[in-house]
Amino acid sequence: IFDAVARHLVDVATHRHGCCVLQRCIDHANIHQRKLLVQEIASNALRLVQDPFGNYVVQYVLDLCPDTEQAVIIVKFVGSVAQLSTQKFSSNVIEKCLEIADKEVQLQFLIEIASDPSVPVLLNDPYGNYVMQRALAVADDRMFELLCDRIRPHIPSLRSTPYGKRIHNKLLKKFPILGQTSPNQGPELHHHHHHMRHLSPLHGNGYQDPGPSYSPHFMSQPPMVVVNPYSRMHHHVVAQHQGFMNYAPDYGLPQYD
């Protein structure tokens, strides 16, 4: 049965009743059988996540399977985060991925969400705006500041439509810092005397390795820390040196020196 389901996984997963059968197969599979099913789900993740029934299969794996099996699926969405965030079914999965992805992959998701073309689209989208709110909630301190800087110029335009007004009011109620008028204003800055906590360089999926100049080391001076008052994880991401995560001059995205 497991072999047959694996061979026809897309047909089973995208069927009204088949998706439930597949979930039961995952429940009762041994380790080898489950890995086979998860591998097939990962191979078809982009298709399944956009399907009204297939997306439940993906969410089921993300909810119940070990981190290593979750990661195999989550990484498949890198490069398509903004597009998937504006679709009814896949947007729920992207929100879940933002919550459970490891820090390196989560950062890649956030960089896509914070890109110039993505921000206004997501803010004005009935599904994408929830992804943006989730991104703000899970972002570390430096990425939170970046997201706020990218969102703030678009806040006034949200008031121009009835739907936009609702999003505008909700965002400002949940994240009042977005209402600051100066684009240079951000979360409070302070110094924190801890050792550097470095983020790994990104590889693959269209992201460039920062190159040999990236060398983790401890700083001799107290690092500058940006505090996200809304973050569920009260950890600090500290600058490696003056430009650890600067704003890219053209796109406003973080870059490694």
Give the tags.
single chain; 257 residues; mainly alpha; two-stranded antiparallel sheet; two-stranded antiparallel ribbon; 15 helices
SSE layout and pairings?
Elements (H helix, E strand, L loop, with lengths): L1 H6 L1 H5 L4 H11 L2 H13 L1 H5 L4 H11 L2 H8 L6 H5 L2 H13 L2 H11 L4 H6 L4 H11 L2 H11 L3 H4 L3 H13 L14 E3 L32 E3 L19 E2 L6 E2 L2
Antiparallel strand pairs: 1-2, 3-4
Helix pairs in contact: 3-4, 3-6, 4-7, 6-7, 6-9, 9-12, 12-13
Q: How would you classify the helix and strand content by structural class?
A: mainly alpha
* SS element count, helices: 15
The count of DSSP E runs of length 2 or more, i.e. the number of strands, is: 4
**Uncertain ranges:** 185-227, 229-252
**Biggest sheet: strand arrangement:** 1-2
C-alpha geometry: elongated
> How do the helices and strands follow one another from N- to C-terminus?
HHHHHHHHHHHHHHHEEEE
